[in-house]
Design brief:
- This is DUF1439 domain-containing protein.
- A hairpin with a 3-residue loop joins strand 9 and strand 10.
- The protein has a single domain, classed as Uncharacterised protein PF07273 family, DUF1439 (Bactericidal permeability-increasing protein, domain 1, Super Roll).
- It is elongated and about 60 Å long.
- It is α+β, with helices and mostly antiparallel strands.
- The longest helix is centred in the first third of the chain and has 19 residues.
């Protein structure tokens, strides 16, 4: 009888540690880069004044801010512009999970830099004024990753769902939380 109690007392911390560790899912930086690159190049109209062709972003993980940064090479052309101008769009964004299609999406896009080389000053001023809206249109709600059924199987079996998303130096960690009662 004493052995059973001793075993129970010794096993209790192990069970408590296991129970407190919620399952999680990791998306590597390489997976994010590949998924986002597949959605580019893309064209973005600029209020009927011009058009931007955005190339695939180079991502950088910003764990200290729990955000992801992206730098996109671009070409501005058409509309009121007489020729094509190269440039750079640099943004960072937060992340959210969309349960409807099991996707991770960019959200809360912040413009860091919009630079278009050689652009006439008036046109540059107009584009700078539209920069934040442009950044949001270009990357806001862009799908970065889809979770598959097998990715969610363990969590589903435990009655859990994706919760907080944490940016780490290696990629994204999605922690699972208990599913809300219907």
């Amino acid at each position: 009888m004493q052995r059973r109690h001793l075993f129970a007392l010794c096993a209790l911390p192990v069970f408590a540690a296991c129970a407190s560790r919620m399952p999680s899912y990791t998306v590597t930086a390489a997976q994010l880069q590949a998924a986002l690159a597949a959605r580019f190049p893309r064209r973005q109209p600029v209020a009927g004044l011009a058009e931007l062709e955005l190339q695939a972003p180079r991502l950088r993980l910003l764990p200290e801010e729990n955000r992801v940064g992206a730098e996109l090479a671009l070409q501005a052309f058409g509309g009121l512009l007489q020729r094509s101008y190269p440039g750079v769009l640099d943004v960072d964004f937060g992340l959210r999970y969309e349960a409807a299609d099991r996707s991770l999406r960019a959200t809360a896009v912040r413009l860091n830099v919009l630079r278009i080389d050689g652009l006439p000053p008036r046109a540059a001023a107009v584009l700078q004024g539209l920069g934040a809206a442009l950044a949001g249109q270009a990357l806001g709600e862009v799908v970065l990753h889809h979770l598959r059924d097998k990715d969610l199987a363990l969590a589903d079996g435990l009655g859990m769902q994706p919760g907080p998303i944490t940016v780490t130096p290696q990629g994204l960690r999605i922690d699972f939380v208990p599913r809300a009662a219907p």
